[in-house]
Amino acid sequence: MKMSALEYISVALFPRRCALCGKVVPPDMPVCDRCEADLEYVKGEICPHCGREKKYCSCSSHRRFFESQTAPFYYSGAAKRSVHALKFDGCVQNAVGLARFMSDSVKKNFAGVKFDFVCCVPLSESSLKKRGYNQSALLAKEIAKELGVPFEEKLLSRTVSGKGAENIGRHRALRRSHRRVRLRRKTKLQKMPQFCSATIYQQRERRSTSAQSSCFCAARIKYIASARR
User: Helix or strand or coil: residue 118?
Assistant: First the structure.
């Protein structure tokens, strides 16, 4: 398709970049060829609850506190590199591209669901100060834009960071830290909240850390909500 002079100038000054690695790509390409070839999409027959392929379904072995979950990728290749760069290397620009894939997954798998808002797994103040940003908040903000719903960044807070994973195991450490999640005081809930969880990736053999975090946060909110009703 032929571009107008204004579009040509825009592309020249602000070229489109790969959503996962940042490499300059043609205007009609969301990711570069290298990343596309190295992506493992979650596809096939999907469990509507845990969001994994039916052959990897974990519903019988894990208790869930959200109603449904979805993720675009498996934790490998280009997706793994992009997530790692976002979390640990300060590549906050990766949040925009990753959130776009997550939003597409939400629209596809939660078609017809009307969302009230998007919130995120909170970081403690000490963890936020150390990292400088909450990668979950960056993703959630972009997803809210894509879905056209409010982003409730301050809905949840966490007073103390989770520690001791090396001593008691990652699962128990996550569960213990999410018991410290707090719901904004003035929040009034007319009914028990229902949750659809969106994560960047799934893991075949076990639940991902992000899936566990979403589950524990949902459990905590429902516990607080039941006490406030």
Answer: strand
At 26 the pLDDT is 84
Q: Which H, E and C letters describe 59-116, residue by residue?
A: CCCCCCCCCEEECCEECCHHHHHHHHHHHHCCCCCHHHHHHHHHHHHHHHHCCCCCCC
Indicate the pTM of the whole model: 0.78
Q: 196-198 and 68-70 as β-strands: parallel, antiparallel, unpaired? A: parallel
Alpha helices in 89-202 (DSSP H): 94-109, 125-131, 135-147, 165-168, 170-178
Low-confidence ranges of the chain (pLDDT < 50): 1, 164-168, 170
* Residues sharing a CB contact under 8 Å with residue 165, sequence separation 6 or more, in sequence order: 173, 174
55 alpha carbon, distance to own chain's centre: 23
Rounding to the nearest 10 degrees, give the CA dihedral for residues 82, 85, 86, 88: 150
User: What confidence score (pLDDT) does residue 228 get?
Assistant: 58
Which of 29, 22, 26 has its CA nearest to residue 8?
26
Q: Identify the burial level of 14 via C-beta atoms within 10 angstroms of its C-beta, where 0-12 means exposed, 13-18 middle and 19 or more buried.
A: exposed
- pLDDT, residue 101, reads 93
pLDDT value for 144 = 94
